[in-house]
């Protein structure tokens, strides 16, 4: 089968795999059996491909605006393709989602830090940072909207959201200011003034200015209260770096084209400060202080103050990852049917049996393998297949595969890259798997060859 089907050209797959004719593709030169070298190769490849897919390697970062999904979640648009719109989910995965309404751009994006299982600091009074951050962000939003600004929050409820998704939202909405709201923990050194800290992007004058202004506004708010404060040497506005002179905090590092700042209001780990922060009126005042700082930044040339030298400290708490994050189902599974000839289907079944897998797993894995080849470093862009080289995917024996919203995004991407339908790319992946499984492993010479050789040496 020259194309996967009926003698129509010679499609090629990325990497070093070249496709020839039916004999090579669908008639393996040796029977496929469990434990052969090709089988072991495919099982190993399966582990590699699936691991890379889980890590998100190769996912596109270019954004095309955002849409507002269920429960007011903001979903950055990664690509608008014929097979569906691909968005970045709340867990930072690429999924297909064709619902929602266009959203953005906005003047300000506020990021209530932490959420879900990542609680952040917890006060001795039970006050949890993830909840406090959200309440302060709500108050800051209302104050900014009263001043006439458009404002978005990265989350509006208790939600597990990795840093890469928070920054994707900010990048998609293109705000004039992006502020991540936090409250601190760990300090024990007594201080005469609040230990407020802000962190800015390295060498970015506007980020530095915003950090200095926010430090002034937030610390000035708390300073009149009689509280036994705590602080560290980083009280003020500074930047925390890792080699080679990049921001340690992903919120700042992953938004290089935005003016981004992190603000740490007070120390929840200090019981007197936690008691103060538990008061609703204090939460409102802090939100208004953050809003006042953003307004000053956007409407004046004030330089700010409280600046500290930059410092190198690459260590983080390990929070802000997608580990354990579970996406809501925003799109129902989609069934895609591919047709095979009797011969093709027999080889598909044999390959699946040799791998100890089902045919639907093999079809799905084939598409992921196409994506794996596409993501290999240094490879050229896929060239869409000519009409006479497209796989024929409408044979009499059919296989229907259910694709969830995440796997469907891979299928849609590969269909767009090769310039074919989702049905055809499903066939393309199946063809690749049968071809790889049919690669002949090195074998010992036949017995009669050995006898001839031995006789000649005598």
What does this structure look like?
By secondary structure, this protein is α/β, with parallel strands linked by helices. It has helices at residues 22-26, 37-55, 129-146, 163-173, 205-222, 250-253, 271-277, 280-299, 342-355, 359-375, 405-418, 422-437, 447-457; strands at 66-68, 74-81, 84-88, 94-96, 101-103, 108-112, 151-153, 177-184, 189-191, 197-200, 229-231, 236-238, 240-242, 246-247, 260-267, 311-312, 334-340, 397-403. The strands form five sheets. Strands 7-6-8-15-10-12 form a six-stranded mixed beta sheet, sandwiched between helices. It has a five-stranded antiparallel beta sheet with strand order 4-3-2-1-5. The chain has a three-stranded mixed beta sheet with strand order 14-13-16. A hairpin with a 3-residue loop joins β13 (240-242) and β14 (246-247). α5 packs antiparallel against α8 and α11 (405-418) crosses α12 (422-437). The chain is elongated, with a radius of gyration of 29 Å.
